Amino acid sequence: MQENFFVYQRRALRPLLVWGIGSSVLGALMLPFAGFWRHFGLQAVAWGVIDVLLAMIGRRSALLKAERMATGELEERDALREAEQFRKILTVNAGLDVGYILVGLAVALRYAERPDRQGLGYGIATQGAFLLVFDALLARQVGQRMDADDHE
Q1: CA separation for the pair 149, 147 (Å, rounded)
Q2: In Å, what is the CA distance from 110 to each residue of 57, 59, 99, 102, 122?
Q3: Domain coordinates in residue numbering, the chain
Q4: pLDDT tens digit string along 48-88?
Q5: Within 10 A of 75 (CB to CB), how many other CB atoms are there?
Q6: What is the 3-state secondary structure (H, E, C) of 2-71?
Q7: Distance separating alpha carbons of residues 17 and 20, to the nearest angstrom
Q8: Dihedral sign of CA atoms 104, 24, 129, 141 in order
């Protein structure tokens, strides 16, 4: 028997939280530099803060739902519905992540003579690449959990 989906979801969002914190800190350390690294760092800070907020909100929501499930306020069918919705969101996000990568690379290549714009573009592409891996792998894992639940 698998653990409560919401306990799993809370744990599964931890890498996003860690990435966001690390990205924000490392990005802030790049801000004193000029050109490429400053703008790469600006992207890291901006995306990192958003990632931290999303992870914290998601983890808090999962914790509250896990508690409601433990007390019987939510049932297994509710968790299954939430898992399917979460998987769909992750799948859509993975598609958006591909767009972030492409836009970031397009900006970096279009402004090859401008180190600041290259930093901005590669900063966006880097964040998009992490998010693509995170979202795609997590969507796959959630789908596998749902399949395993169907076979129990």
Answers
A1: 5
A2: 36, 38, 16, 12, 12
A3: 5-147
A4: 999 999 999 999 999 999 999 999 999 999 999 999 999 99
A5: 11
A6: CCCHHHHHHHHCHHHHHHHHHHHHHHHHHCCCCHHHHHHHHHHHHHHHHHHHHHHHHHHHHHHHHHHHHC
A7: 5
A8: negative
Is the whole model's pTM more than 0.90, yes or no?
A: yes
111 CB burial (10 A radius; 0-12, 13-18, 19+): middle
Residue with tokens 């966006």: 124
Residue (of 93, 86, 88, 101) closest to 12 by Cα position: 86
As a whole number of angstroms, the distance between CA 89 and CA 134 comes to 12
Q: Rounded to an integer, what distance in angstroms lies between the CA atom of residue 6 and that of residue 79?
A: 7
Q: Tokens 């760092």 label which residue?
A: 41
Q: Tokens 């890291």, residue?
A: 44
